[in-house]
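Work Package 4 report. The design task specified in the project plan requires that, given a folded chain encoded as structure tokens, an amino acid be chosen for each position. We show below one input record used in the internal validation round.
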């Protein structure tokens, strides 16, 4: 029997006994660490979600507040869960290293030295993380907002500790380091506004056109009362050009609803103008023909 557990002078019994002892001690401890880490991660996520729901609950009365609360909830949930996962993974990794026989003290000391060295060469990374933290803390913009950052615009798809991801109308994702963000145009912060400019011909009865536009705007506001804030305003003649008269109106809407409102309102105004005989200007070309040619 002994020869069966001996191979080239190696006592297989001792190896098997050692493996069994390691599995019953360190192996069991590592498995326990992984289970506890998984449970802790799940409990932490539930705690974050429950805390955010209590701290950022919808009022059910103010549409703007509810929309901003929803976007704020998504932003903070992503940020806190990322920090939680990083913390749990680091702690679990250090505990597993100790069970594998590594000394944690030298590892931490080496990590500190490496961290200092990396810090000098990764100042942009630190800048990105600090800027990202201030963006979240100061509530500059949230996930779901439509923003313009430099030459890139789109919906904020992800707001991380280091980068911000925008998704434009073509579906292209723009990943921007937070440290590169200097000026941001937020089109959906608090509320939005449709700026409606309509051109009519010079021979148009302006009063009649103003009444038609005002009726369309009021009908839209009544039909979509949950998306329109206050009464639409028909401001009047904005400018005069060589071929048309520009009439300006404004509609204050919930964040991000100004584009949908513009599409519907422009279509309805075109239909009303056609039924009332109000002409829209169009480009014309005048050709002179010489009699002798």
């Amino acid at each position: 029997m002994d020869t069966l557990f001996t191979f080239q002078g190696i006592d297989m019994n001792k190896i098997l006994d050692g493996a069994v002892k390691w599995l019953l001690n360190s192996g069991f401890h590592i498995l326990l660490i992984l289970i506890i880490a998984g449970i802790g991660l799940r409990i932490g996520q539930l705690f974050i979600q429950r805390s955010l729901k209590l701290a950022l609950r919808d009022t059910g009365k103010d549409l703007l507040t509810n929309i901003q609360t929803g976007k704020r909830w998504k932003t903070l949930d992503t940020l806190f869960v990322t920090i939680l996962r990083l913390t749990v993974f680091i702690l679990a990794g250090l505990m597993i290293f100790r069970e594998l026989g590594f000394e944690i003290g030298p590892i931490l000391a080496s990590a500190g030295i490496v961290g200092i060295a990396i810090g000098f060469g990764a100042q942009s990374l630190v800048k990105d993380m600090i800027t990202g933290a201030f963006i979240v803390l100061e509530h500059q913009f949230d996930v779901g907002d439509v923003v313009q950052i430099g030459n890139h615009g789109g919906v904020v798809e992800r707001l991380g500790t280091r980068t911000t991801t925008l998704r434009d109308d073509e579906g292209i994702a723009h990943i921007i380091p937070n440290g590169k963000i200097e000026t941001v145009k937020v089109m959906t912060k608090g509320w939005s506004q449709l700026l409606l400019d309509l051109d009519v011909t010079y021979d148009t009865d302006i009063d009649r056109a103003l009444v038609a536009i005002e009726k369309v705007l009021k009908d839209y506001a009544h039909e979509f009362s949950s998306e329109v804030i206050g009464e639409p305003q028909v401001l009047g003649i904005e400018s005069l050009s060589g071929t048309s008269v520009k009439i300006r109106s404004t509609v204050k809407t919930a964040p991000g609803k100004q584009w949908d409102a513009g599409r519907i309102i422009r279509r309805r105004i075109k239909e009303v103008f056609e039924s009332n005989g109000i002409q829209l200007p169009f480009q014309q070309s005048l050709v002179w023909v010489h009699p002798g040619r």
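The CA atoms of residues 51 and 57 lie 10 Å apart. Validation will be extended to a larger panel in the next phase.
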